[in-house]
Amino acid sequence: MRYRFVDALLITAIAALCTATAVFADTGAPSYESLLVRLGSAHPDYQAIQGEASAALAAIEAAGAMPDPSVRVELMDIDDYNLRPDRVGTTKYSFEQMFPLWGKRGLKRDVAEAGYAAAQARAELTLAELRAMLRAAYAGLYAAHTGRGINAEVQALLEDMGLSARKRYANGMAAQQDIIKARTEQTMLRAEAEELNGRYRRASVVINSLVGDPLDTPLAPPAALPDTSGFTQAWRRFDESQGGNSPALAIAERELQQRRAARELAARERYPDLAVGVTPVQTGNSVDTWELMLGVTVPLYGGTRAMEKEQVAMLGAAQDRRRAELLRLRSAAGEARADYEAARARQTLFDEQLLAESELNYRSAIAGYQAGQVDFDTLIEAARQIRNVRLQSLDAAVQQQMAVAQFERITGVQP
Q: Rounded to 10 degrees, what is the CA torsion of 209, 212, 216, 218?
């Protein structure tokens, strides 16, 4: 037939559209795993929280230390302006040390150790949030690049369709409007391509900021999405442990331990501490007498009782916060799993059924257009259907990544 060559082009193009991966692999493309390795050491948020953990570690030693002693010099029987110790009547050199009793130092150390453990868990959760951001940005980079590939393939298909329309119009077998519609569709696709280019650049900026590269560093197109095969198992471990492997829950747990120790410390502040002082007394140039001082603190004004009430209330709040955190984590993990499974089911449906049906529909539209049984709008709509199925399959794959990222961001558990 006269248009056999053009029709063969259409069939070849649609076959490529249905089977191509739309991912142009690049040997220089950074893998998700390679970016993940660089994540923690580069980001200032993680470095800052690590600095806070180091400060909390130093606070443990300070909390368990003895109070500093005090030294006092008293000049007595001064009868002129000469304040030399050997020229006044007597000079007392007092050395005093406070000794906390009733295990108060140990409780202060317990408070500090719980604070350090909470800071460590906070660093783990910060790193998990950064991993989630990287996964989401990497999925966005892949989606933009793959979308550009689909867009380019559809543009090539529409170019062939336009060529067929022009041939048919030249022979009086089609309307000029068919040519205009093909050009309009191509223009819309070029606009979509610019939007996808913008999304690609945006995702590149986010990834560069996370790994510490200059923001305008070009990124080669990724070859594949990050693996999500371990998500279901990670969710099961989280569910079976009742959130016990989550840094988010560990923070609430450590803060609860902190409040328990602080409450016990506040209760023991009602008991006195011991003060011991030694005073050598100098007369002239020699020390001829010594004085010994023993003293205790007296909780007279009720400040310790008020502090104890405060810590009891804070402990209750920490207990409620831990229960609320566990509920929030389990709810968020369940939502992420539901989103993941729904997206996975959609992708399977698109890939295994709808794409083949769309291809068949397009081939039928080609045959109908050749025979004059369907109009050009039907042919364009068939091409749109294939494009939409490809894009919806891509979106479902990206939604799986987003569900995994949400799970990791909330729970801190890495799939």
A: -110
**Residue among 329, 312, 321 at smallest CA distance from 254:** 321
Q: Residue 302: left (phi > 0), alpha (psi -120 to 50), or beta?
A: left
Helix (H) or strand (E) holding 70: strand 70-76
259 has pLDDT over 70 = yes
Which residues contact residue 185 at a Cβ distance below 8 angstroms, ignoring those fewer than 6 apart?
Answer: 158, 380, 383
Tell me the domains of the chain and their CATH numbers. 4-411 (1.20.1600.10)
Dmax (CA) of the chain? 132
pTM here is 0.79
CA nearest neighbour of 39 among 248, 235, 289, 209: 209
Model confidence at 174, pLDDT cuts 50, 70, 90, reads low
Phi/psi for 26 (5° steps) reads: -135, 125
Which of 395, 332, 339 shows the shortest CA–CA distance to 128?
Answer: 332
Please, which pLDDT band fits residue 28 given cuts at 50, 70 and 90?
Answer: low
